[in-house]
Amino acid sequence: MPLRILLVEDEQELAGAVQTVLQRQGHVVDHCPDGLEGWTLLCSELARYELAIVDWMLPGLSGPELCRRARTSGLELPLLLLTARAETADRVEGLDAGADDYLSKPFAMEELLARVRALQRRQPSYREPVLAVGPYRFDPQTGLLEVSTAGGLVAIPLAGKEQQLMIYFLENPERIIPGSQLRHQLWDLHQDPVSNVVAAQIRLLRRKLAAHGLPSPIETVPSRGYRFHARLPGEP
Asked: pTM for the complete prediction?
């Protein structure tokens, strides 16, 4: 399942590589190079982070101190600590500060992704990746949306942002979701706050459904947002 991830890393080249790898897996990743800025983002109401990847040596606030503050404040999201310090005492210090896992630099990106998946599986909210609501079934592993219709099963391959939108709608059926909430959860914080990126992406998703002969289950609720109906339009 895609996650909303905060990456706090001051090595720009490494941060760029990590961010790219995570985004290719469908995750939404915000990056900042400063520990204090990272702490502010974790506390922000704009984005509800589901995982934080934090470097040890940071300007403003160290990684262990950021972890310690997070735990003291009651934040329960998984924390993955990155560091070049590989001594046992350092690992113990990081874990005692509140980190859930520890990855020594340099590391392979495959191992980073494996650690992220492992941390995700540990969460009480983790569930099987296939989402099914009404006639709609989406498998994040294949990116395939299957829709059961009177004429049979229709399979639709979804692209990256389409997948993220579909997952969010399937997790929140029949709820009115403000466009600002979708933007804050599915796009990084550097996105223009007045951009019509959400409306544009939903328009593209509707067109893809229409291209497969399906009406859109996504209703635009004027001045309020969007609502995903857990049934085919026209059904009772």
From this structure: 0.62
